[in-house]
Design brief:
heterodimer, A: Rossmann fold, 4-stranded antiparallel β-sheet, 40% helix, B: 760 residues, mainly alpha, two-stranded antiparallel sheet
Chain lengths: 282, 760
């Protein structure tokens, strides 16, 4: 399956007199991790919400593959393959981990009315739900594609132990992981991650970057916005640096780090210096 | 009358509405609570004032001073101390505050109706003399209007000055911004909040006393009038006092001006209704038109989860025991519902209401409990269902042929679907309080423009129901009701299971999160509203048939508030709770004087502060506590393992909290689960590391425990092979964690573990 590329073309978003995002172009190709950095108020978050569809741009377009998704609601974008996670993990706290993932996995179908009439929930013919449950109880129900994806993701992220835990009772690190798993279950072309490392300790962050690499290697495009410049520079393939609503530098991490504007903005700021060292050591 | 005369006539009502609006704003600006109870408090004070003047013969001025300087602020201080301070302390969500204020509303209605009855009184005294002052030439203005106008200006100016110019005003803003932070900086937050409440309820009392003589004094009527003034604060976007005052005067004057026009035909009829109902229309229009009433609904996604404790039924296999217990519960419930069939005819007739109300309550479970939308318009849907089906039976609905009774009930209910769909549209972008007010306004407009209009509400004949030519006996009708209830339960069940159920719960728990993974938020909300309206419509039809008449009062907008409160009290996401709530209300209404059920629901609603999740989960939690107590009485306190401390976190904050299980398990704000329910999750799915805290050696027994264990062992020794096997298993000497795993699954289970531990 060929994955789509996410593209922003000349995006502009103004709040009153302030131009939060000023003619920004961005390309997030499949299989690559794209980082978005910038000091507070640089417009990262606004750009992010323009990409997810939470906000609408005043000018410009957002393209997924060849489709213009600028005016689409977040849930439609998600069904088309542009899936986001949140700064604050946004699980469904009363559902189990497995059910959380199922909600993500089931997103491609919208015929809820069938469920209302008690018809099969997973499209294996029109078997009534009760018949299906009876089969399940006898151990005869074949695993549908949806359940399969959930089990695969649970396995690959090491979440099988907590599959039946109510999500609201998990610690933050696990919540992030489950949210990421839920996003993966939605079979994304492009993943938009809003500060995925916030609230994680250094060990968990290291695990996260491995996970991101692995996910990207499977062909998914990833866009990541994070204050943790360490993480961003250690994991990304390309970086966009924003200042004052504009992209001031973009390209591979090395180029961006050596860009004079970026240097002047971040000058004497510890995180980038540290990132620089780790980057050079690599 | 000329336009000027009409305008002057409207001023009085406008000034009263402005006073009410000022009161609402004061409470909201100081406490962040939109006080829905304003109407109930106003009515209560108006009744007390009338009692003092008419029954006790106190002079009017003294009665007014007592009512406004003692009773009204006293109510406010009590409310702040007993109800809203605890809520603010635990940073309760706006939805919880809404339910609390609904509880106060229902309680005050219950008190008023309980003491003075539901009948109308027209002898409410007026504080102002019934005279007028000449303005110019022969244009005169009433003394009351003039005095009220002066009061409005004085209050608005004084409050404005306090808010903008004084240190107290700064403190108020600090408290509203962040109560905890303000307290840390030395602001006496409780005093500020109490002052706000006292001022708000005093304005409410004033509103009630001024309104009462202008209209008939009835508990429901006056309360609704005050609720209609919410239009004013919506227009002010809950902040600007001048806008509120001007809107109040504007609407009242416009309503008065309408009286000089007369139109023919249908338009004329609408105009006539508008002439006395402009406020409620304005409320609906403003709610739909004012863009982004952010203040009302900010960040309150999934707020209703705070009174819906349970998640989806597990998608995996259900254990045998649970499966059996499930079915036992259902059989028991079914038996209880069938019991009325053995009643005497008159009692059976009383029981008719139960399935009907239960269906209406189920409709609220669908929309509020499962999909998390606050909807206060159920009575409107129920009434429409009833009216449409009756009109179908009589054959005067849009020229459709007459349909026999039973079929028309279902068709009528289905006809409500498009109306539910339309009502659902505002819900797509609105949430929390805004949605609650919008649905309430829809219900009120439907009530005023449809149920109370002779064109629609006359000629609704109730013929006995027939099935294949046989007239339904009373017992048969009850059975038919149960079948309808069964259909409703089936719909609810399907909405709670499988993909659809998961998607709805996801929407309830976190609507942005649901949208982020592709859940079709818009269509799901519409689906929930539509299905809910059909179920309510069917319930309404049954309600009419069980009371043998269509009465607009049965479907008055305030009924929605009462019903909603009842549903929340009995567990908003519990189908069983809906049925129990219906049985509860009907039983009390049959056995006790009018208003008692309202009173009871009000008290329960306020108690909800201590048992979020409704009665259903309180009962669950109580059983667990009992089991735990039993378990504890067997084990020496010093030997107990640390126990998971139930943590309650508000829906707003994503605050990390700690539990006792692993010492410090960070739990981000989950907005919903409450102590009891969560303790249950722990019991069923212990997290890894749960056993770390267990003592290495076996627990010591208390004397009571030892003697009981001895008895059990004696008994066990004399028993059959099965018992001996269990006995043998328990002699392996390994302490079982289950001994001290605190929330024992059931009291019976708790008795077994000590026996095992005792052998060690």
């Amino acid at each position: 399956m060929s994955r789509h590329v996410l593209q922003a073309v000349g995006l502009v978003r103004r709040y009153g007199g302030l131009t939060a995002v000023d003619h920004v172009d961005l390309v997030a190709p499949p299989g690559m991790i794209t980082g978005l950095i910038g000091p507070n108020g640089a417009g990262k978050s606004t750009l992010f919400s323009l990409l997810t569809g939470v906000e609408q741009p005043d000018e410009g377009k957002v393209l997924l593959g060849s489709t213009d998704i600028t005016r689409m609601r977040p849930d439609i974008r998600s069904r088309r393959g542009l899936v986001q996670t949140f700064q604050v993990p946004s699980l469904f706290p009363t559902l189990t981990v497995a059910d959380n993932l199922l909600v993500g996995a089931e997103n491609r179908r919208r015929d809820y009315a069938g469920g209302l009439l008690g018809l099969s929930a997973q499209g294996r013919g029109r078997v009534s739900h009760s018949v299906e449950r009876a089969l399940e109880r006898l151990g005869l129900a074949p695993k549908g594609p949806v359940t399969q994806i959930v089990e695969e993701v649970l396995d690959s992220l090491g979440l099988s132990d907590v599959r039946d835990t109510i999500a609201g009772t998990l610690p933050t690190g696990a919540l992030r992981l489950v949210e990421f798993a839920r996003a993966l279950c939605a079979r994304p072309d492009v993943l938009l991650l809003d500060e995925p490392a916030s609230g994680l300790d250094s060990e968990e962050t290291a695990k996260l970057s491995q996970l991101l690499r692995r996910t990207a290697a499977s062909g998914v495009g990833i866009v990541i916005v994070d204050h943790d410049v360490d993480l961003v520079f250690s994991v990304v393939d390309q970086v966009y640096a924003m200042v004052g609503g504009r992209v001031v530098a973009s390209g591979d991490p090395e180029t961006v780090r050596n860009d004079p504007t970026v240097r002047s903005v971040y000058l004497a700021q510890a995180p980038l210096a540290a990132a620089g060292q780790t980057g050079e050591a690599r | 009358m000329t336009s000027i005369d009409l305008a002057l006539a409207g001023i009085s009502l406008g000034a009263i509405a402005a006073l009410s609006g000022i009161g609402l704003l004061v409470t909201y600006r100081t406490n962040g609570v939109l006080n829905l109870a304003q109407g109930g408090i106003a009515t209560l004070v108006a009744y007390i004032f009338r009692e003092m003047v008419v029954e006790w013969d106190l002079p009017i001025w003294l009665a007014a001073v007592i009512a406004l300087a003692v009773v009204s602020p006293g109510i406010g201080l009590l409310l702040e101390r007993l109800v809203f301070r605890p809520l603010a302390r635990r940073r309760a969500s706006a939805a919880e505050s809404l339910v609390a204020s609904l509880g106060v509303l229902v309680l005050s209605l219950g008190i008023t109706a309980g003491i003075w009855g539901l009948g109308a009184r027209s002898d409410a005294p007026s504080i102002f003399p019934n005279s007028s002052v000449r303005l110019f030439s022969d244009t005169r203005i009433g003394v009351d209007a003039l005095a009220e106008l002066i009061m409005v200006v004085v209050f608005a100016v004084v409050i404005g000055i306090i808010a903008a110019r004084t240190a107290f005003g700064r403190q108020i803003r600090a408290v509203v911004d962040d109560r905890q932070l303000a307290e840390l900086s030395g602001v006496p937050a409780d005093k500020v909040a109490a002052a706000g409440w006292a001022a708000g309820t005093t304005m409410a009392g004033l509103t009630g006393i001024l309104l009462a003589p202008r209209f008939q004094l009835t508990p429901y009527g006056l309360t609704l009038l005050v609720l209609e003034t919410f239009a004013v604060v919506v227009a002010a976007r809950l902040s600007s006092m001048p806008v509120a005052v001007l809107t109040a005067l504007g609407i009242a004057i416009l309503q008065s001006e309408l009286k000089q026009f007369t139109l023919d035909g249908d338009a004329g009829q609408i105009l006539t209704v508008l002439q006395s109902n402009l406020f409620i229309v304005a409320l609906l229009v403003l709610l739909l038109a004012v863009p982004k009433l952010r203040e009302l609904g900010s960040g309150d996604s999934g707020a209703t989860a705070s009174f819906s404790s349970r998640g989806a039924p597990p998608s995996g296999r259900v254990s045998g025991v649970r499966f059996r217990r499930d079915y036992l519960g259902k059989l028991g419930g079914g038996a209880l519902l069938l019991a009325p069939l053995t009643f005497a005819p008159s009692d059976l007739r009383s029981a008719f209401m139960v399935p009907a109300l239960a269906l209406i309550f189920l409709s609220m479970v669908i929309v509020t409990g499962y999909s998390g939308q606050l909807s206060l318009g159920a009575a409107g849907f129920a009434g429409l269902g009833a009216m449409l089906s009756l009109k179908l039976t009589n054959g005067d609905l849009f020229g459709l042929p007459a349909i026999p009774g039973i079929a028309s009930m279902f068709v009528g209910a289905l006809f409500v679907a498009p109306i539910g769909l339309i009502t659902g549209y505002p819900a797509i972008r609105r949430r929390g309080l805004t949605l609650a007010l919008t649905t309430f306004a829809v219900g009120a407009v439907v009530s005023r423009f449809v149920f109370e209009q002779p064109t629609f509400a006359t000629g609704l004949y109730l013929d006995p129901l027939t099935l294949f030519g046989w007239e339904l006996s009373e017992k048969a009708f009850y059975v038919f009701e149960l079948i309808c209830l069964g259909i409703g339960l089936l719909v609810v069940r399907n909405l709670h299971h499988g993909r659809l159920g998961r998607a709805l719960l996801a929407l309830r728990d976190h609507s942005e999160g649901a949208a982020a993974v592709g859940v079709d938020v818009r269509n799901l909300k519409l689906l929930a509203f539509t299905v809910s309206s059909v179920v309510a419509g069917l319930g309404g039809t049954l309600l009419v048939h069980s009371s043998y008449s269509f009465s607009a009062d049965d479907f008055a907008p305030l009924q929605s508030l009462l019903w909603f409160t009842a549903v929340v009290v009995f567990g908003a996401d519990s189908a069983a709770g809906a049925i129990v709530a219906a049985a509860f209300i009907v039983t009390i209404d049959v056995l006790a004087p009018a208003g008692s059920s309202t009173l009871a629901i009000g008290i329960l609603a306020l108690a909800l502060g201590w048992m979020p999740g409704g009665l259903a989960s309180a009962v669950r939690g109580l059983l667990r506590l009992l089991a735990q107590y039993l378990a504890d009485s067997f084990v020496d306190p010093n030997q107990r393992a640390p126990r998971p401390v139930p943590v309650r976190i508000s829906a707003v904050g994503h605050l990390p909290a700690t539990t006792g299980i692993t010492g410090s398990t960070g739990i981000p704000g989950i907005g919903s689960t409450l102590g009891a329910a969560r303790a249950g999750h722990y019991a069923r799915w212990p997290l890894s590391g749960n056993q770390d805290g267990l003592p290495a050696d076996a627990p010591r027994l208390t004397p009571f425990g030892s003697s009981l264990v001895a008895m059990v062992q004696q008994y066990a020794a004399a028993q059959t092979a099965g018992a001996r096997q269990r006995h043998a298993a328990s002699t392996d000497g390994v302490p079982r964690p289950a001994v001290t795993q605190p929330p024992g699954p059931a009291p019976t289970g708790a008795g077994v573990h000590p026996a095992e531990g005792g052998r060690a």
